[in-house]
Fold:
Amino acid sequence: MNKSERIIEQEPKYKTQIIDKKWIKRMDECTNSGLLKWPRTIRKSQVLVLYNVINTGKRWHTPIVINIVRNSSKNDMHIIDGAHRLTALKKFYNHPKNELVAFRQTFAFYENLTEEEERIVYEMWSSGVKQTNQDWIVINQDDILLWEKIQKDKEFPVNVTLTSKKKSILLRDIFYVLSQHLSTQSKYYPQPPNFIDLWVINNKINDWIKVDVNYKLLRGFFIFFEKGFGEVGADNLWSKCANLFYTIFDIYLKNSFRLSDDEIIKAFRTIYGNKNIIEKGRTHSSVSQKVELRKQMVEAISRKLKKGLE
Structure:
């Protein structure tokens, strides 16, 4: 087995920690005692760029990568990827106005890598392995109340999973569409949240899902969907195609309060066999095209019901 194969086989352990001024102080203490090893070169220009990002209120969620070298007397920690971000954080917390600021940061921990293996891991993270929104959801699943409630609900209408399975829907897809529904901006098209917004979005969804009527609304949507469009999963175009699924979800949540269950199913069946809508859902990708797709769906449903929908 060569070294690169060993790196691929060793999966990192993820942990999310609260970063604040006290945490930075402990980091400095570890550095001064020799427990925390830094790369030889820190580029001031890169630190300044990252500092300006933090100062504007933005955050990143890509993990900081650490190698823990376990010795007989102590455990050393080597920073593989993230030294510039940690240096920028130290600069940020040196300013008195930021003393009370705190936020979450995910770490990826490896164990007992050699110097050569550290180099391979660094190249992997810095050039190839980037954390996706899906990764973020899997790593932080314990902090997602939506996931907790669905897991406890033994009669939830559909199978929700963290990773893709044939007859299921990803938690990520529900997360996305709820983030769209709760957006303060008037956007009627699917837009996956940015990394820097994920904790903010999750907090909004947590607050929303705590309200019993909202959770019932979510359950009601999936009951309606399977009656009107069939079982969710990879074989169902209406749940597999993001544009179609997100748009149906959004229209349902914004209009369910004014329609009976029978009306909703009858109305949405109007678009079930609409080849024009299906083709647009599969091929349209620009913002204007997504807005047009939603407009066409609403017009078709409204004509059937003889009611104006949002």
